[in-house]
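Section 5: illustrative case.
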């Protein structure tokens, strides 16, 4: 998996969550900027752990696969995508390596259950055993398919005033007309819907209606499900609760809750890991 450069949960959202943890002294004696940077590092590690656990990137990303598939009796092929949910197919080619035939019209590509990519194949001059026509039923064909998978996860790059009808984001990957995105801005969270006229790939995202509140640059804009956010928060909290040990459990008994600073009978960090693991179970990659 590629290097994760932005956490799935931003620092303000974590601080607003009921973890009762002190995040203002992560770097002893450090300035506020140092505390923010270290908390972001912890959230990055927690987010990378979540991706590793489910065996695929959760944030929206472009992915390309090369594989062999069997041609069905109707002349169609079905590709089970390695990453999900599949949002759009961006490229498709088939044939005999290295001379693959690119499909220029992708309008006939069908995405089923957000993971299965189905399409018919056109003429394949020179395909083994054929001079003209489509690959034979039951035969194998080499396919290279590019697609966008995962959930939008980005940030605002410019302030948004109340009643604004568009957002400017850092990474538009995975944003499509009709999508519902959430602005994870503590105290002013809200959901917005992408306008039908939005052109995928543009960093300026038009909305259906207007935002209710003002939001500052850096606010998280995401289509990641809330349980993924909670899983990352649990993992990050466990990392912050961890203490140096010599052997024994990976996570020692550590308090968690309103009395975390004085109680030794609160939920252990290992329990938070178990909760995070359970929350992410439904997002595991299915091979």
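Designed sequence:
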């Amino acid at each position: 998996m590629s290097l994760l450069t932005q956490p799935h949960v931003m620092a303000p959202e974590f601080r607003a969550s009921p973890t009762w943890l002190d995040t203002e002294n992560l770097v002893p004696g450090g300035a506020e900027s140092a505390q923010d940077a270290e908390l972001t590092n912890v959230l990055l590690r927690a987010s990378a752990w979540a991706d590793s656990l489910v065996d695929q990137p959760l944030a929206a990303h472009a992915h390309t696969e090369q594989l062999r598939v069997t041609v069905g009796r109707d002349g169609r092929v079905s590709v089970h995508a390695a990453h999900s949910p599949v949002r759009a197919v961006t490229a498709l080619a088939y044939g005999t390596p290295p001379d693959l035939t690119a499909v220029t019209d992708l309008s006939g590509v069908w995405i089923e259950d957000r993971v299965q990519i189905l399409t018919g194949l056109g003429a394949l001059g020179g395909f083994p055993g054929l001079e003209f026509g489509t690959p034979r039923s039951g035969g194998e064909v080499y396919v290279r398919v590019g697609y966008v998978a995962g959930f939008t996860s980005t940030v605002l790059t410019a302030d948004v005033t109340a009643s604004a009808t568009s957002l400017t984001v850092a990474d538009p990957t995975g944003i499509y007309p009709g999508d519902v995105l959430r602005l994870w801005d503590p105290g002013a969270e809200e959901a917005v819907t992408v306008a039908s006229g939005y052109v995928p790939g543009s960093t300026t995202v038009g909305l259906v209606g207007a935002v209710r509140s003002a939001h500052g640059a850096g606010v998280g804009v995401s289509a990641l499900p809330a349980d993924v956010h909670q899983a990352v928060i649990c993992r990050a909290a466990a990392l912050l609760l961890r203490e140096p040990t010599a052997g024994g459990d990976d996570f020692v008994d550590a308090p968690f809750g309103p009395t975390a600073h004085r109680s030794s009978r609160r939920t252990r960090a290992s329990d938070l890991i178990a909760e995070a693991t359970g929350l992410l179970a439904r997002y595991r990659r299915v091979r």
